[in-house]
C-alpha cells in the first residue's frame, strides 16, 4: 500500500542522498519534495526515472506564506486522493548565515525562519492529515550542545533567549559577525530539539517525531554563505576528516537519515538520534516550561491553525 512522505532539503547535500535511499528502501513511498526554484521539479524528474513516484511542490521555506501554500496543496491532494495517505515528513532543510541580521520576507531572522518556523508550520498545518503509524524526522545538529566534544571548536554554542526575541534579527551580541550567525544556527537547532519534545507530547499516538543529528558532514552546501577561505577549507580540506570518526560522508549521513525515516533505526517519539542510535541531547537538561513557551511563540508566529 503506497503512502506519502514529504521532504524538505532534498535538493543537495545529505538530503539529496537520503531522498534516493528512502525511495530505494521503500518503493511504495510517494515522495513529495518541497523545494525552492526549479530544483525540486528537476530532482523529481530525475528520481522518477527508476519508476519511483516523486512529486515536487514549490516552497521557499523562508516565507511562511509559501510554506502554508505548499502544506495546503499537499493536504488538498491527499483529500482528493491524488496523493496516498500521509505517513512521514522529513524536515531536513536548514541553513547557516554568516550573521544574525538577515531577515526573512516576514521579518524574522532567516536562520530561525527556516530551521524552526518552517518545520513548525508544516507539522501543524498537516497535523491531522498524518495517519498512524507515521514518522516525522527533523534534522538537527551537534552544534546545539555548544561544547568542544560535540563541535570541535568549529561553531559557537547556543545562547537561549526568549523565543520571541530569538525569532528576530540582532538577538545576539555583534549581530553582523560570523560568530553571531553561528550562535543563531546553534540556538535554532536547540529550539528544533525542544520542539520535537513538545510535538511528541502533543501529537496523537502513532505519529512519532524524532530529532536526527548527522554529526559533522563536510562538503555539503551548508557553508556556502561563508567567506571564500572557509568555503575552500570546507570543500577541499575538511572532506579528509571523513577518513576519521569525527566526520561522516554525505553518503553515510544520507543513509542514516533514510534509516530513521524508514523506521530501521529504533527510536521513540521525542527522541534524539545521534547518527545511528538514540542518544541524549542537551535539551533534556532544561525544564518543560522552556518548551511550552517556545511552542506558544511558534504558534503565535506561524498560526493560526484552524484544521
Ligand atoms: N553538513 C553538516 O556538517 C551538518 C551538521 C549538522 C546538521 N546539518 C543539518 O543537515 C541538514 C542538511 O544540510 P546539508 O549540510 O546537507 O546542507 P545543504 O547542502 O546546504 O542542504 C540544505 C538543504 O536545505 C534547503 N534549503 C535551505 N534553505 C531553503 C529555503 N529557503 N527553501 C527551501 N529549501 C531550502 C536547500 O535547498 P537549496 O538547494 O534550494 O539551497 C538544501 O536542499 C540541515 O538541516 C543542516 O543544518 C548539517
From TrEMBL:
GO molecular function: oxidoreductase activity
Domain of life: Bacteria
Pfam families according to UniProt: adh_short
Keywords: Oxidoreductase
Family the entry assigns: Belongs to the short-chain dehydrogenases/reductases (SDR) family.
Name listed for the protein in its UniProt record: Short-subunit dehydrogenase
Species this protein is from: Amycolatopsis echigonensis
Amino acid at each position: 500500500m503506497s503512502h506519502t512522505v514529504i521532504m524538505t532539503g532534498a535538493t543537495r547535500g545529505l538530503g539529496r542522498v537520503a531522498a534516493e535511499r528512502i525511495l530505494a528502501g521503500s518503493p511504495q513511498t510517494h515522495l513529495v519534495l518541497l523545494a525552492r526554484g526549479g530544483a525540486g521539479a528537476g530532482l523529481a524528474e530525475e528520481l522518477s526515472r527508476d519508476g519511483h513516484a516523486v512529486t515536487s511542490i514549490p516552497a521557499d521555506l523562508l516565507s511562511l506564506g509559501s510554506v502554508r501554500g505548499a502544506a495546503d496543496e499537499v493536504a488538498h491532494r491527499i483529500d482528493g486522493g491524488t496523493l496516498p495517505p500521509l505517513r512521514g515528513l522529513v524536515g531536513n532543510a536548514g541553513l547557516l548565515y554568516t550573521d544574525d541580521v538577515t531577515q526573512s520576507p516576514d521579518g524574522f531572522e532567516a536562520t530561525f525562519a527556516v530551521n524552526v518556523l518552517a518545520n513548525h508550520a508544516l507539522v501543524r498545518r498537516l497535523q491531522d492529515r498524518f495517519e498512524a503509524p507515521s514518522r516525522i524526522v527533523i534534522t538537527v545538529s551537534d552544534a546545539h550542545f555548544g561544547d568542544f566534544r560535540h563541535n570541535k571548536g568549529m561553531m559557537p554554542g547556543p545562547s537561549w533567549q526568549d523565543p520571541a526575541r530569538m525569532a528576530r534579527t540582532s538577538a545576539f551580541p555583534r549581530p553582523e559577525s560570523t560568530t553571531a550567525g553561528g550562535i543563531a544556527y546553534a540556538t535554532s537547532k536547540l529550539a528544533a530539539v525542544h520542539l520535537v519534545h513538545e510535538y511528541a507530547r502533543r501529537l496523537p499516538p502513532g505519529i512519532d517525531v524524532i530529532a536526527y543529528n548527522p554529526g559533522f558532514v563536510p562538503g555539503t552546501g551548508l557553508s556556502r554563505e561563508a567567506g571564500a577561505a572557509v568555503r575552500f577549507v570546507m570543500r577541499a580540506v575538511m572532506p579528509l576528516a571523513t577518513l576519521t570518526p569525527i566526520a561522516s560522508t554525505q553518503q553515510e549521513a544520507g543513509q542514516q537519515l533514510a534509516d530513521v525515516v524508514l523506521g530501521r533505526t529504533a527510536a521513540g517519539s521525542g527522541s534524539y538520534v545521534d547518527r545511528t542510535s538514540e542518544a541524549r541531547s542537551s535539551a533534556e537538561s532544561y525544564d518543560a516550561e522552556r518548551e511550552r513557551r517556545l511552542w506558544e511563540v511558534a504558534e503565535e508566529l506561524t498560526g493560526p491553525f484552524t484544521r
